Amino acid sequence: MVTKLIGKKLGMTQVFNAKGEIVPVTIVQVEDSIVVDKKSVERDGYIALKLGTFDVKKPKNMPKALKGLFKNEKKHLDMPLKKRLSEIKVSKEDAEKFNIGDTITVESVFKEGDFIDVSGVSKGKGFQGVMKRHGFHGGPASHGSMMHRAPGSIGSSTFPARVFKNMKMAGRMGFDRITTMNLFIEKIDPENNYVLIKGAVPGGKNSEVIIKKSAKKKIVQAKSAKK
Fold first, then answer.
1. 184, 202 Cβ separation under 8 angstroms
2. What is each CA distance from 223 to 212, 213, 217, in whole angstroms?
3. What is the reported pTM?
4. Is the pLDDT of residue 171 over 90?
């Protein structure tokens, strides 16, 4: 069973739900994915589906080695070129349901009301101080304090005479892989391949995000079933 797809974050807006309430949503465009290849235990040591997503705008700039993946001469297939390749591990029974060249749509994997986890790369904020990066309160703001936004002491005395690891200090902020869990699919627009997700997801506009079925919800449902 395919449990995740790759999409592109377009931005945020708001919609009205069935109760007439305003709901803030993030619009993610999830284009149709093509099964480019199937991994097998005999050949690769594991079972997975290799999917291709996002159409290539300039085929001439694509390397010939990657172009060869989309031409299966044994099965006489000439698939459209995709610029993003990803692998999804599936069971042997689920892998047999798909053939090379099959198309996987967003409505075949997700439906309205599902809980999902969204992973993306957060916005980069450059080099920042400890107050912005870690939420330090800072020193006195009056004249003569000499440490308005300084981090303060970072080392110890003669022993051990070094700075401990994981010390909260100034440095690069943002541009990290972040996963927001248990988000709710408010609506799916199959005509435009839009998925409207309640709340905010990590990343900037036009950034790549990975949508997968929620992991924690499955654990909670399993525990409630045992009770």
1. no
2. 21, 18, 10
3. 0.83
4. yes
Give the integer Cα–Cα distance in Å for 143 and 70: 67
The answer to whether the beta carbons of residues 113 and 197 sit under 8 Å apart is no
Provide the b/e sequence for 67-96 (b: ≥16 CB within 10 Å): eeebeeeeeeeebebbeebbebebeeeebe
Distance between terminal CA atoms of the chain?
Answer: 27
Token duo for residue 101 = 């060249």
Q: Which residues pair with 23 in a beta bridge?
A: 15
Phi/psi at 219 (nearest 5 deg)? -65, -45
Q: Are 25 and 13 in contact (CB under 8 A)?
A: yes
Structural domains for the chain: 4-57+67-124+178-226 (2.40.30.10), 125-174 (no CATH)
Prior bond of 80 cis (ω within 30°): no
Please report which confidence band the pLDDT of residue 220 belongs to, taking 50, 70 and 90 as the band edges.
Answer: low
Category of 186 on φ-ψ map: left (φ > 0), alpha (ψ -120 to 50) or beta:
alpha
Structure confidence at residue 199 as a pLDDT band (50, 70, 90): very high
